[in-house]
Amino acid sequence: MLRSLSPGTRKWLIVGGVVLLVMIVSGFIPMSHPHVEIKAEPIFHITDTIPFTNSLLVTVLVDLFLIVLAFVIGRNLKLVPGAFQNIVEIAIDGLYKLFQGVNREYAPRVFPVVATIFFYLLFSNWFGLIPGFGAIGKCVPVSHETETHASLDARLASTSPLGLLPQSATLAAAEEGAEEGHSSGGCPAGYAMVPLLRSPSADLNFTFALALLVFVYIEYWGFSTLGVGYITKFFNTHGFKKGVLPGLMDLAVGLLEFISELARIIAFSFRLFGNIFAGEVLLLVMAFLVPVVLPMPFYGFEIFVGFIQAFVFAMLTMAFIAIAVIPHGGEHGEAAH
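Given the sequence above, the corresponding structure tokens read:
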């Protein structure tokens, strides 16, 4: 009967059969309770006080991936590009034109740095969506320090919409299971599972550090373009030449701009962290409820979210650089075009 079908139809029937088989088998696979932890978990310690976390491991992996990818693309450039080179050129050229639309004068100068931020965040966010990222880990002994926090964590879990416990409660539950002879999260009794891989963007330390670097980079362009006069954007006393009231108003506006400048660090870090971390928790809960079937639509949505977050971070960086290089007083020049 299959021989009478076209090759394309047979191919889709085989693919559909494999998907259906995976869905049926996954229904019989026992799933452990979702483990949600806000901070990145240490895999081992470089020193007594410096841990090597699972998010740092993925940071290194993404770095190596992008370095190898850039090396391979650079070594195989062709005058008549193939499909892969075409995709890369379209992505880079499209991003460059968008940056030119923000500031045509400074786009060539800042493009290497801002584009690197975009592509790094893009692959960093997408790496966290690889199946098994939160499921592959190692079993570590349960710490007895969590016993005093068990009752508090139980109350927190009862008020949580999803009933998810922080790590201390998870470890406390593992201790209780050890006393009763049960295992926790696929680990032996008395042990808890620590994931080996975690998206860097789901670690607040990473997003805060990146936001701080971007802040310094923006201020660098402000000072390098406008010199010491860049400070007058935030501490403007020239208005006092027109009178006390105009001077106080200019000073107040400058202080508000200074506060908003510092607030960008928090906005940058928490926007990226919140969206990526929430997406990983969503996928984890959906996979726990109905493996394979339920998470699939959310995977497509999180791929889109990962792209949007990287794009927004890069475009805001470019926009803030364009604002920083504008002289105080509205002489926009090229930045206005």
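The chain has a mean pLDDT of 75. Try to locate this feature in the token string yourself.
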